[in-house]
Amino acid sequence: MTRVVVVDDQQMFRMGLRAILQAQDDLEVVGEASDGAEAVALVLREQPDVVLMDVRMPNLDGIEATRRITAAPSDRPVRIVMLTTFDVDDYVFDALRAGASGFLLKDASAEELVAAVRTVAGGEALLAPRVTRHLVEAFVAAPAPAAPRTEVLDVLTERERDVFLLIARGRSNGEIAAELFIAEQTVKTHVGRILAKLQLRDRVHVVVLAHESGLVGPG
């Protein structure tokens, strides 16, 4: 059972999310919060698997709440999916840097919402297609670093570096396996080690690090 916390300042919206999630046999809503400060306290107390976090809220916004949650010591990782009506670049970057594992627009369907929760609960990252497009466009438009910071990969083996760069280019595990002529399970093992060595939460943060370090660019 995947334990979920719902955070949004609109009660009717929280009720809608709860109804959708509680209808699933494998999902359980263990709490709700109406602002970021409540969310931090609730998440640290309940230790859910997934948090659905609104971006704009009173008292403490969702991005700062996410930053505090991911910075707190925990025996189990908490995956946070940001919810917003705005697919604005600044929100995407700030949310990812704060440690969010996903970013979903509030007009997503019930099926997309459930799939998002299951995706991040399984350790994968999630970005809505429109958000992904904005993220890529922003990377392309940004000036490249004067020189790639290859030292960030010093802790990785040669094979792990290969996998890292393919993740950064958006390849799936199956595609990486085919390109490197290795088993998909081996790719999963490499991915886990890469995330652990670089202290990254998930694959989206591999993409962010690779682009910000100049290791991957347009084309």
Rounded to the nearest angstrom, the distance between the terminal CA atoms is: 41 Å
- Overall morphology: globular
Strand order of the largest sheet: 2-1-3-4-5-6
Main beta-sheet strand count, sense and barrel state: 6 strands, parallel
How many DSSP H or I helices?
10
Quantity of strands, as a count: 6
Residue runs with pLDDT of under 50 for 5 or more positions = none
How helical, in percent, are the residues?
A: 40-55%
Strand content: 5-15%
Quick gist of this model?
This protein has 219 residues and is an alpha/beta fold.
Description of the molecule:
The chain has 219 residues and is of the alpha/beta class. The protein has ten helices and six strands; from the N terminus they run βαβαβαβαβαβααααα. The protein has helices at 11-22, 36-46, 62-71, 89-98, 110-121, 129-141, 158-168, 173-180, 184-198, 203-212, and strands spanning 2-7, 27-33, 50-54, 79-84, 102-105, 126-127. A six-stranded parallel β-sheet has the order 2-1-3-4-5-6, with helices on both faces. The N and C termini lie far apart (41 Å).
